[in-house]
Amino acid sequence: MVHEGERAPDFTLAGTDENGGERDFSLKDFRGKAVVLYFYPRDNTPGCTTEACDFRDSMNRLAPRCTVLGVSPDGPDSHKRFREKHGLNFPLLSDPDKRVAALYGAFGEKKMYGKVTKGIIRSTFLIDENGTVRKVWRKVKVKGHVDEVIGALSALESHGAG
Asked: Which residues are part of the catalytic machinery?
């Protein structure tokens, strides 16, 4: 599990970029710019769609300052359809074995409708330009979350990260 102040574990995952192209994405490729890495359970479900669309709609406030990367267990074809259907303007990465989610503490036991299940725990990580985790949100509530991320990004910029 990753905590604030720790180095963000590097990874490489297949993904669909903001133009619909498929390629591999490595976290280390984004050094020099802040990264918002968010884990979500599944493409085209109500909460995940709302969260993705909130990031999309806030990209004018995010893109100059950071890169947004969405990660779920869905495959590239699902991501491509999700991106096209909702006009998403940031990369979606595939973590089918949930290895990266587990590494970040975004996979584990959760309660759904009163039952304990294992799955993706909606989580977001703000990583500074040097690769250090500066803010962690676990068990994210979608409503207002992107504004919280933007606020943390502003605080990071005003305090000078690393």
From this structure: 48
